[in-house]
Amino acid sequence: MMVEGVLLGALALVAWLWLRPNRARVHPALGAKTWDVVADGLHNSNTDLIHYRGQLLLVHAASPYHMGTSDCRLVVRRSADGRHWEKLAELRMPGEDIRDPKFAVIAGKLFLYALPNRGFYALPYGTVYSTSDTGEQWTPFERVVLVGSEPEGWLFWRPKTRDDITWYVPAYWKHHGRSILLHSTDGVRWNLVSEIWRGEGNDETDIEWLPDGRMLATARLEVTPDRMLGNREASTLLATAAPPYERWSYHKSRVTRLDGPALFAHDGRIYAVARYQAGTRGVLTRLGGTFSRKRTSLFLVEPERLVRLSDLPSAGDTSYAGVVLNDGALFVSYYTSEIRRDYPWILGMLLPTNIRMAEVPLDRLAQLAREKAGLKEAASPT
Description:
Radius of gyration: 20 Å
Number of helices: 3
Helix content: under 10%
Shape: globular
Mean pLDDT: 93
Structural class: mainly beta
CATH topology: Neuraminidase
CATH architecture: 6 Propeller
Number of strands: 26
Distance between the termini: 74 Å
Number of domains: 1
């Protein structure tokens, strides 16, 4: 009877996790519209988005599951409106997994950066790049060049610029625990600017500029990297530096561990689309725990705090967004498990995931940010 009770209890738990309805909280004031772009039964993930030559380009990984596999490839798609897409290209690393693609247009050339991985676990070992004129034909992947340093081991996030001349990219070390800032003028050869942070298992790091010219960086602090149950001390690093970005000041947030951050600026504020961990944080649901419920969410990012604004329809294995601001709207690409359910992360990593798009009016986003941040500013005169 005891064995039967244990089995029945286990089956009931599995059924509950499988059928649990989604409780993502999409704020109605956001005015978000969302829809599927890719729903083909594969584990689609790791998106990025760019506005190039008057159209949207989307890139995402397509794989049987979340873990590393040589069956993984990067798929590039193009759209005029974000709703109707044509596939332009598929990029592979023969015999290897590839993930975390990022677009940039540097010196007039379209770049695609990505992280190759040789094993079953998602442990990329370096950064490669490919270039294209149209998004249809791409050069073979090559390694980036770190001047004065061995490039293998540094994992690039998203290159950005303020003047279209000097480009900056944050990079983290393949074994976690260190992130740096690099700069380049050609997208291929990169020079060290400064160390952003060392310790606490830090990895995925993104950057954006504050109105006063300071750079703001967020970093995912795992504390103990790749632990199934996460870590109760995990957090998000908030770092700022004035030009030339060599000396950093720090704060931390426990609102969530900001996985897969996509930072962007609008109307004097910095925002992020990133993964949020919903629910309580117990023994099995510490920050970063694989049994936790995950969301793709919008945040206001300030030098001293994160403010969660809203979820997007999402669950299970989700996030790793791309963002484009165009014609008064924020376009967001992201991936998610079945949005009618609320799978734990570990289940979502094994099941199919879809690529979704969200469209958010920028004025609605700014108003929600003012309200959530407790700001009572008068509307700017027109």
